[in-house]
TrEMBL record:
This is Neutral protease 2. The active site is at E310. SUPFAM superfamilies: Metalloproteases ('zincins'), catalytic domain. It is found in: Secreted. Belongs to the peptidase M35 family. InterPro entries: Fungal_M35_metalloproteases, MetalloPept_cat_dom_sf, Peptidase_M35. One of its GO terms (molecular function) is metal ion binding. Pfam families: Peptidase_M35 (PF02102). Residues 1-19 form the signal peptide. Keywords: Cleavage on pair of basic residues, Hydrolase, Metal-binding, Metalloprotease, Protease, Secreted, Signal, Zinc, Zymogen. GO terms for cellular component: extracellular region. Secreted metalloproteinase that allows assimilation of proteinaceous substrates. Shows high activities on basic nuclear substrates such as histone and protamine.
Length: 358
């Protein structure tokens, strides 16, 4: 499986989260609002309030409401985005588990406290801005059947001064886990076979998608990436070619592949996750047990495009690594051009669409 790469290389990448505007113009469904409050130093409280008279069951995976160390906020100082030090997950929306939801009653507020210094490198003294925006998939009250639609949310923007020395007193979320994990090459038997097939399919899909990005129909680029100019085409094609290169290399290359939950990122409905700080990709039991190798159904998930999705997150494959700005067709097609070009699932959906002839 993919080779180990020196830790030093990972500092080359920075999170590029300041894509503004984030969403395309259009009608939004936004019954919730998020209020960010600073608790102390670099700890914040994110409180989501249901402004509606209707109860919703929020699918919290991939959102700031989940306890796992995923990218929850836009954190930026005056020069750049703070480097993200957690994990990126790919989610499955099939058979959503009850524990993947949180009910929010009419006018209720749900809150979570987050230590920013565990999720982001706050290694420069000075003023930081913190905000969040995104989409949350949901079910009706007392149901775990997703409606297929996503509600959008925004927050206020917090602005405060950070002491890099104080922030440095907190270990990064992934480092805390890494220190107590003895990592082994854990792909064997059927899992090893599945990973080899998925990497081969990833290479083929990414190569074909790169060709399409370079010289395929403008309409497809506009559908998925909101633009078809030369610069957008070449950015998308370059990233996909880099992904194809890495997927082709099973004994070396920038990423390292794991077939078990080495960093405790496999909660319910999680297929796989990437630690961008280390270019590690881990595949969860759901990836092996619930996904077909390759699907020809439009916008469905399979092992091939899950590998492709995760590969785009790794900054040593192509920098900057992508973010999870939106998951799934409904939310991803509402992103702005910049947010789409930086969104992992958009690449997976694009590659699937070309293969399946959507
Ligand atoms: Zn992802």
């Amino acid at each position: 499986m993919k080779s180990f790469v020196a830790y030093a290389a990972l500092f080359a990448a920075s999170v590029n989260a300041a894509a503004i505007p984030f969403w395309k113009e259009g009608k939004d469904f936004n019954p919730i609002f998020v209020t960010l409050t600073r608790l102390n130093d670099t700890k914040v409280r994110a409180a989501v309030t249901n402004r509606d008279d209707t109860e919703y069951n929020l699918f919290i995976r991939g959102t700031f409401l989940d306890e796992v160390p995923i990218n929850k906020f836009h954190v930026r100082n005056k020069n750049s985005n703070a480097r993200f030090a957690g994990i990126f997950q790919r989610l499955s929306y099939d058979n959503p588990a009850p524990e993947s939801f949180r009910a929010i009653h009419p006018h209720e507020t749900l809150a979570i406290e987050v230590e920013l210094a565990e999720l982001y490198d706050l290694d420069t003294d000075g003023q930081y801005d913190v905000s969040t925006a995104g989409r949350i998939y949901y079910a009706e009250a007392n149901s775990t059947e997703l409606t297929g639609k996503a509600m959008s949310f925004n927050s206020n923007r917090l602005s405060f001064s950070v002491s890099a020395f104080k922030a440095g007193g907190h270990s990064n979320a992934v480092d805390k886990i890494a220190k107590r994990t003895n990592i082994q090459n854990d792909c064997s038997g059927e899992n090893l076979q599945a990973i080899h097939t998925a990497l081969d399919n990833c290479a083929a899909l990414a190569t074909s998608a790169a060709c399409n990005a370079t010289s395929g129909p403008a309409a497809k680029m506009e559908e998925y990436f909101m633009a078809s100019d030369e610069s957008t085409r070449s950015t998308v094609a370059d990233r996909l070619n880099a992904v194809a290169d890495d997927c082709r290399q099973t004994a070396s290359g920038p990423t390292r592949t794991y077939c078990s939950d080495v960093y405790n990122g496999c909660s319910s409905n999680v297929l796989a996750y990437t630690l961008p700080a280390y270019n590690y990709i881990a595949y969860c039991p759901l990836f092996f047990n619930n996904l077909p190798a390759l699907t020809n159904r439009c916008h469905n998930q399979d092992q091939a495009t899950t590998v492709l999705h995760e590969e785009t997150h790794a900054p040593d494959v192509y920098a900057p690594g992508t973010l999870d700005n939106a998951y799934g067709y409904d939310a991803a097609m509402s992103l702005s051009r910049d947010a789409a070009v930086n969104n992992a699932d958009t690449y997976a959906l694009f590659a699937n669409a070309l293969y399946a002839g959507c």
